[in-house]
């Protein structure tokens, strides 16, 4: 628009910088030298174009910081040409609409300016491109005052001082009135917080609009997540974004036999009896490795328990002459086979044996079974006051109950040995070149009565902490009352030779394979007298140390899968239990690495290193007793590792709920020696999960709190130098598992088990198999009771039969949810609605509690720690062929106490019915 030619020329003041132009309350003096106009205009152009023309080198320079000239009138927009942003106009010649347009353009210009350079000035202009979070925090430390609303009168010709004048400087009244009306019509309210630049109406509108939009967006997002709309997706994917199949493949491929070898070699490098310095050192190593591999919450847990230790000169086995002096003495100790870098190999002794120095005639009792003692009694052999010579193996591998039978037969002491017919040169090559026990090998063992008491024998039923009550040694039912010692068969040979002519020739099946024993006799009260000396150190409050570490779950962190293995050993422990330790540590490393990459399971994974397991499963039992309530609510499953590789045949023992899952996993793992999967080998031999025993650390989890437990291992049904110095690292590496092939396969099976139990949306516990087994076992129990002479066994056990069928029916209805959930997720394109997610987690919780609902809180008669009414150990082991279901009923039938059998059956039926109702809720 052309300038009005009639208006007198008024020299323009120098053009200010942008900061000076927009600063409130500034004014210019009119006596400015016109020669400064050009430089001032150039400075203003550079300031206003900062950030606009990045290609202009001058755009990066800082605007001048001098004092602002006084008398400045803000520049206005005269035309619609946006290239002429800085021309001035007179209010007298511009129409009101043009002035209004100029004002709007000026405000738009202010809003469009990128003042990244201006941020460094003491006073800032508020621009729409400045994000709230982009400003440094110190900029916002104004005084706490309420913001004020201030009238801002905009005028194209008004000065900063607020008085409107005409071009000639006089200004008539009429023109003043018109100007005031125009200004009044354009008056607007501006939001002016104290300490901040004023906001124009356009800026205020945009600020408010964007703030409201942001609040609405935040509210929408909050409603989405507060309503748990995407909880299914979060639970299935979370922040992990890991494909489950990719994780399985990664874990299976990551099991490294070299690392397993390193761990195995380290853990077997020195002696480490429970509670000793070597054991403490390995505990610290385990604690360090748990942390190094990325486990959370790594802690040590101390208990104070009853342990015994052999003395160097405190043991002796001698044949005494007529004058009472020894004519022969046993060597007792194994040859030092080397390989120990610290300390010495442990003495030959029995864990939890009784101290004593006794004498008596020698009597050979074969395996010490119930039938063997019947033979001795039938032959008229007086066993009172005698010393028993007992061979290992037989139908019952647990030595404790057999020594209890020796004690109850009147013997005052017992000697044990491994016969070469069971484990020695008659079976094959002996260690160190073969897997069998050499003539100088000694099998140490525990003689605790774990069928009666689990854990610390002085605190049955509660954790062995310092402030807890303790029984006296003579009060416990968990200890043998006679001293005992183990021998090598080289030491047993002179004893067997000395029996010739005493008692009776042994019956068929009693003669062993010890060479140079031409005749095997039983011995009797007239047999040579043997001295058994077993003086030892006994500690009633010996500290032991468990170590724990976990990987937290993201969906149900209070639910956990526990993987455990014991750390202590009676000898070097390469097979028992560090074959399991080495594999467990490798899985800790692999899963810790996955966590470092961002993976997390749905449920928590806890790893545990137990102590004093060789004495009576102490470490694991004390942990269960100390944390009983929490474990009942939180433990989903327990996987046990121990002597995991002694052969090439995969075996499992524990709860039937793992059968389907185990078969699925075995189908993914191939045996390179047979070029078929482990599942194919399992089916070929008609394998199944064996009933849970009490031979390892899953006993407390199963019997005391009812956690579904599984023990996995490779063996071939062949013996090995158990708990002997010959069962060392070299034997494992060169004989039992060259290349650690089966250690690697076991690691793969373990890794897949952990993933399915801890990270599967649905907990893969096969309750149907368990229920079907109960129905079959209830029927078999009736048949067996009839053979035992029970009157009307069908009537006596009718309640148990009906209850087991009710459980099977409830399980079928309960498991129908799996189909419902799968259909829901498939129909939703893979997403899980929040309501279905809650139902799924409740389903998992009930599945995990199924076995814990099968407990009788009173326990079995005289054995209160054994609470499982469906699966439990016998009071007196009678071999694996006996029924294993419904132990209390079975014990009453064996005792031919039919009333007690009916009462036990009715009580078990009541518990089964309650478990069925728990599934139906």
TrEMBL record:
Tell me the ranges covered by the Transferrin receptor-like dimerisation domain, including all copies.
797-919
Taxonomically, the superkingdom here is: Eukaryota
- Which InterPro entries does the entry link to? PA_dom_sf (IPR046450), Peptidase_M28 (IPR007484), Peptidase_M28B (IPR039373), TFR-like_dimer_dom (IPR007365), TFR-like_dimer_dom_sf (IPR036757)
According to the entry, every stretch annotated as the Peptidase M28 domain falls at 546-716
Residues of the region (Disordered) are 1-110, 151-188
Q: Return the Basic and acidic residues bias intervals.
A: 28-39, 100-109
Stretches of Low complexity bias are at 165-180
Instruction: Give the UniProt keywords, A-Z.
Output: Membrane, Transmembrane, Transmembrane helix
The record ties this protein, via SUPFAM superfamilies, to: PA domain, Transferrin receptor-like dimerisation domain, Zn-dependent exopeptidases
Can you tell me where the transmembrane regions are?
A: 203-225
- Alphabetized PANTHER family for the sequence: CARBOXYPEPTIDASE TRE2, PUTATIVE (AFU_ORTHOLOGUE AFUA_3G10650)-RELATED, N-ACETYLATED-ALPHA-LINKED ACIDIC DIPEPTIDASE
The record's similarity note reads: Belongs to the peptidase M28 family. M28B subfamily.
Protein name as it appears in the record = Uncharacterized protein
Q: Which organism is it from?
A: Remersonia thermophila
């Amino acid at each position: 628009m052309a300038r009005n030619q009639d208006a007198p020329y008024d020299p323009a003041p120098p053009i200010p910088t942008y900061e000076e132009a927009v600063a409130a309350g500034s004014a210019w003096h009119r006596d400015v030298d016109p020669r400064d106009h050009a430089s001032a205009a150039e400075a203003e152009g550079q300031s206003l174009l900062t950030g606009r023309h990045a290609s202009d080198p001058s755009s990066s320079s800082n605007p001048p910081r001098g004092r602002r000239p006084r008398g400045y009138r803000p520049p206005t927009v005269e035309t619609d040409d946006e290239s002429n942003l800085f021309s001035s106009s007179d209010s007298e010649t511009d129409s009101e609409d043009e002035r209004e347009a100029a004002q709007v353009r000026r405000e738009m210009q202010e809003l469009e300016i990128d003042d990244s350079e201006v941020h460094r000035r003491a006073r800032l202009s508020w621009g729409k491109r400045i994000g709230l979070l982009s400003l440094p925090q110190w900029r916002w430390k104004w005084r706490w005052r309420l913001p004020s609303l201030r009238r801002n009168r905009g005028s194209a010709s008004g000065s900063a001082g607020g008085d409107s004048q005409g071009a000639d400087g006089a200004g008539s009244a009429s023109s003043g009135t018109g100007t005031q009306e125009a200004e009044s019509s354009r008056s607007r309210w501006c939001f002016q917080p104290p300490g901040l630049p004023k906001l124009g109406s356009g800026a205020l509108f945009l600020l408010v609009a964007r703030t409201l939009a942001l609040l609405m967006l935040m509210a929408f997002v909050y409603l989405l997540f507060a309503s748990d709309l995407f909880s299914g997706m979060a639970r299935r994917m979370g922040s992990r974004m890991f494909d489950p199949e990719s994780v399985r493949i990664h874990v299976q491929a990551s099991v490294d036999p070299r690392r397993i070898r390193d761990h195995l070699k380290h853990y077997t490098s020195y002696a480490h009896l429970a509670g000793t310095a070597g054991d403490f050192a390995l505990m610290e190593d385990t604690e360090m490795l748990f942390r190094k591999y990325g486990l959370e919450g790594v802690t040590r847990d101390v208990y104070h328990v009853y342990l015994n230790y052999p003395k160097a000169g405190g043991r002796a086995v001698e044949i005494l002459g007529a004058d009472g002096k020894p004519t022969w003495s046993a060597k007792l100790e194994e040859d030092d086979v080397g390989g120990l870098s610290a300390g010495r190999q442990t003495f030959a002794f029995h864990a939890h044996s009784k101290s004593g120095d006794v004498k008596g005639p020698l009597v050979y009792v074969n395996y010490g079974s119930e039938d063997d003692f019947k033979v001795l009694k039938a032959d008229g052999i007086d066993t009172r006051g005698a010393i028993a010579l007992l061979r290992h193996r037989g139908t019952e591998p647990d030595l404790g109950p057999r020594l209890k039978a020796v004690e109850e037969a009147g013997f005052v002491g017992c000697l044990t040995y491994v016969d070469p017919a069971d484990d020695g040169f008659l079976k094959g090559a002996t260690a160190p070149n073969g897997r069998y026990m050499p003539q100088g090998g000694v099998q140490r063992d525990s003689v605790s009565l774990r069928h009666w008491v689990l854990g610390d024998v002085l605190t049955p039923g509660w954790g062995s902490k310092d402030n807890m009550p303790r029984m006296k040694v003579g009060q416990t039912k968990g200890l043998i009352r006679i001293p005992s010692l183990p021998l090598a068969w080289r030491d047993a040979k002179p004893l067997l030779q000395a029996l010739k002519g005493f008692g009776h020739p042994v019956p068929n099946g009693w003669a062993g394979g010890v060479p140079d024993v031409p005749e095997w006799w039983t011995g009797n009260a007239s047999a040579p007298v043997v001295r058994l000396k077993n003086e030892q150190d006994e500690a009633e409050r010996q500290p032991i140390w468990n170590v724990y570490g976990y990987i937290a779950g993201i969906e149900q962190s209070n639910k956990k899968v526990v993987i455990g293995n014991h750390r202590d050993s009676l000898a070097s422990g390469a097979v028992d239990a560090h074959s399991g330790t080495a594999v467990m540590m490798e899985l800790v490393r692999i899963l810790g690495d996955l966590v470092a990459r961002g993976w997390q399971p749905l449920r928590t994974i806890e790893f545990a290193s137990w102590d004093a397991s060789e004495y009576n499963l102490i470490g694991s039992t004390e942990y269960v007793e100390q944390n009983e309530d929490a474990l009942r609510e939180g433990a989903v499953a327990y996987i046990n590792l121990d002597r995991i590789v002694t052969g090439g045949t995969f075996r499992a023992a524990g709860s039937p709920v793992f059968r389907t899952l185990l078969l699925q996993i075995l189908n993914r793992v191939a045996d390179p020696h047979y070029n078929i999967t482990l599942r194919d080998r399992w089916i070929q031999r008609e394998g199944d999960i064996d009933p849970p025993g009490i031979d390892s650390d899953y006993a407390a989890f199963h019997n005391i709190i009812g956690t579904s437990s599984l023990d996995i291992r490779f063996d071939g049904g062949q013996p090995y130098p158990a708990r002997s110095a010959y069962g060392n690292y070299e034997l494992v590496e060169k004989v039992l598992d060259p290349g650690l092939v089966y250690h690697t396969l076991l690691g793969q099976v373990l890794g897949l088990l952990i993933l399915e139990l801890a990270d599967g949306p649905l907990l893969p516990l096969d309750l149907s198999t368990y229920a079907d087994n109960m129905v079959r076992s209830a029927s078999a129990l009736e048949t067996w009771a009839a053979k035992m002479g029970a009157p009307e066994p069908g009537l006596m056990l009718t309640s148990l039969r009906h209850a087991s069928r009710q459980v099977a029916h409830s399980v079928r209805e309960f498991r129908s949810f799996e189909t419902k959930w799968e259909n829901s997720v498939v129909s939703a394109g893979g997403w899980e609605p929040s309501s279905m997610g809650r139902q799924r987690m409740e389903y998992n919780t009930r599945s995990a509690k199924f076995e814990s609902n099968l407990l009788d809180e009173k326990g079995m008669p005289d054995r209160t720690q054994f609470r499982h009414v469906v699966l439990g150990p016998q009071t007196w082991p009678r071999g694996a062929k006996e029924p294993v279901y419904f132990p209390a009923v079975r014990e009453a039938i064996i005792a031919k106490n039919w009333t007690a059998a009916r009462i036990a059956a009715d009580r078990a039926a009541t518990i089964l019915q309650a478990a069925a109702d728990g599934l139906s809720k």
